[in-house]
């Protein structure tokens, strides 16, 4: 029986082990996780930080019986010749197949004054430990990329005094164009967030964060959301091929025999560092390791920032909106109502886009984008959600994927509803819809609402 050892106990490792069990693997499975907690959904950390969810609400389902899980154990070396992994607690773990699921690690700025007495509570909210609820007092968030914006917005809405410091011209400048950035800026301000764009946090001093222009906003807590990169240290030390991440092929094989990698630590051309990608890879690898066809066919995913009350969707590779490469463009701008949509088309198909406060368009354009299908001729009607075959969620085709993270179709939701799942928790339990990044909750409600007798 093949012994599988998995390094990392994040969402990718968790899904892999669940799917191995599902596909009938009954050999020994060992999971080593550096964090002390059992596997949890990292994508929900912002809700732990702002106090909406308790830490235990983020827990993923228990591992199947028989799986040996060692939390609080960091793998520090891989001996490929002897086929064993060494933990920082002195334990050794033999394997026939090794899977690296080490995720990503934060990229942190050098801060002057750090470590001094009475400086702000400086944290990286990428782990349960780092995302414990923030206390009273002003909060400075360093970094206005996707995670920094979600963090600042959630804390602002929860009533904290928040300053967001971002080096770009507007928040999320790598993903959004100027107009979408302006709408996001307005929404952040409405949520009570003060913005410092074109600035960086360079240090701390008692009760303050220090900016690169010498000013120092008050800070009881400084949250570092300054980016992340694949955690490849162990893979490198083990002699595996590493570029940005651990290089893998379509079967998630690394450059070494019987060593695989998946999730945020892996580098595959069609994949991004998202939950949906990690889970897709886990599903594929579980098939491979149980003798099935596990060739990875990465789906195209829509990025839905977690900004409660502000519907934003980003389609296409990062930077594509800023460099549209001459494709046909469709633009809808309605500043009075804060709505904006821009699609960049190649051969009549969506190559990139951004949609702000256009939820119907997100549902419909998202489907066409995911399936790489041509857009209907009346593009503006599509953006407005007033025309075309998919104008309402009720008119989505049965095959439309409503929950991207868990690949749950409209038909699966309807089946769950007809089997008695009549509210969101019941639908989530039956289908797993909404349990990933959670951004599909409104659409799931809409699909189920359309089934309820009026
Ligand atoms: C705050 C935040 C919000 C996010 N929100 C979303 C979202 O809304 N939608 C979305 O799609 N994605 C989101 N993401 C991204 C998503 O969480 C990741 O894509 C996903 O967690 C990747 O899973 P993973 O298992 O590959 O890596 P990780 O979740 O990073 O887990 C890797 C685990 O491996 C452990 N590890 C590393 N090295 C070792 C070692 N040597 N020995 C033992 N253990 C080790 C780490 O401690 C970690 O626990 C978010 C991420 C963050 C940080």
Descriptive terms for the model:
5-stranded parallel sheet; 11 helices; 25 strands; about 25% helix; globular; single chain; about 450 residues; Enolase-like, domain 1; FAD/NAD(P)-binding domain; 4 domains; binds flavin-adenine dinucleotide; alpha/beta
Short description:
The chain has 454 residues and is an alpha/beta fold.
- What's the CATH topology label of the largest domain? FAD/NAD(P)-binding domain
Global shape: globular
Give me the side-by-side strand order of the main sheet: 3-2-1-7-18
Total discrete domains: 4
Using only C-alpha atoms, the radius of gyration works out to 23 Å
Number of helices: 11
What is the tally of beta strands?
25
Low-confidence region ranges? 389-394
The overall average pLDDT, rounded, is: 91
Helix content: 10-25%
The secondary structure category is: alpha/beta
**How much strand?**
15-25%
The CATH architecture assignment of the largest domain turns out to be 3-Layer(bba) Sandwich
- In CATH terms, the superfamily of the largest domain is FAD/NAD(P)-binding domain
Largest sheet: 5 strands, parallel
Ligands in the model, by name, code or SMILES, are:
flavin-adenine dinucleotide
What is the CATH C level class of the largest domain, in words? Alpha Beta
Question: In angstroms, what separates the terminal alpha carbons?
Answer: 55 Å
InterPro entries: BFD-like_2Fe2S-bd_dom, BFD-like_2Fe2S-bd_dom_sf, FAD/NAD-bd_sf, FAD/NAD-binding_dom, NasD-like
Domain BFD-like [2Fe-2S]-binding: 401-446
Domain FAD/NAD(P)-binding: 4-269
Protein name: FAD-dependent oxidoreductase
């Amino acid at each position: 029986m093949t012994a599988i050892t998995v390094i990392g106990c994040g969402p990718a490792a968790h899904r892999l082990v669940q799917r191995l069990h599902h596909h009938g693997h009954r050999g020994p499975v060992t999971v080593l996780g550096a964090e002390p907690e059992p596997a949890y959904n990292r994508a929900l950390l912002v809700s732990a930080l702002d106090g909406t969810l308790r830490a235990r609400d983020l827990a993923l389902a228990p591992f199947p019986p028989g799986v040996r899980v060692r939390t609080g154990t960091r793998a520090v070396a891989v001996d490929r010749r002897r086929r064993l992994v060494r933990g920082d607690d002195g334990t050794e773990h033999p394997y026939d197949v090794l899977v690296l699921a080490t995720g990503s690690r934060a990229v942190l700025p050098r801060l002057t004054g750090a470590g001094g007495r009475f400086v702000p509570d400086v944290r990286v909210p990428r782990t349960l430990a780092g995302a414990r609820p923030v206390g009273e007092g002003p909060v400075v968030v360093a970094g206005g990329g996707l995670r920094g914006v979600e963090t600042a917005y959630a804390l602002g809405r929860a009533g904290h005094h928040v300053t967001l410091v971002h080096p770009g011209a507007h928040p999320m400048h790598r993903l959004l164009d100027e107009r979408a950035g302006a709408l996001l800026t307005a929404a952040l301000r409405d949520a009570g967030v003060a913005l410092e764009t074109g600035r960086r946090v360079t240090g701390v001093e008692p009760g303050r964060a220090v900016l690169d222009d010498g000013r120092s906003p008050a800070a009881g807590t400084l949250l570092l959301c300054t980016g992340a990169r694949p955690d490849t240290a162990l893979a490198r030390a083990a002699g595996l091929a590493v570029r940005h991440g651990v290089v893998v092929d379509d079967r998630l094989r690394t450059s070494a025999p019987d060593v695989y990698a998946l999730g945020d630590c892996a580098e595959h051309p069609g994949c991004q560092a998202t939950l949906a990608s990690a889970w897709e890879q886990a599903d594929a690898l579980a098939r491979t390791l149980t003798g099935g066809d596990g060739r990875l066919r990465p789906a195209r995913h829509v990025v839905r920032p977690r900004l409660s009350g502000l519907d934003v969707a980003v389609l296409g590779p990062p930077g594509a909106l800023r460099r549209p490469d001459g494709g046909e463009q469709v633009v809808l701008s309605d500043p009075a109502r804060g709505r904006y949509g821009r699609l960049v088309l190649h051969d009549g198909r969506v190559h990139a886009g951004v949609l702000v406060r256009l939820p119907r368009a997100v549902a419909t354009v998202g489907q066409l984008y995911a399936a790489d299908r041509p857009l209907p001729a009346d593009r503006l009607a599509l953006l407005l959600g007033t025309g075309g075959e998919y104008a309402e969620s009720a008119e989505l085709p049965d095959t439309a994927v409503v929950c991207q993270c868990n690949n749950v179709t409209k038909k699966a939701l309807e089946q769950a509803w007809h089997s008695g799942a009549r509210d969101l928790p019941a639908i989530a339990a039956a289908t797993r819809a909404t349990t990933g990044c959670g951004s599909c909750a409104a659409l799931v409600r809409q699909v189920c609402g359309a089934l309820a007798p009026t």
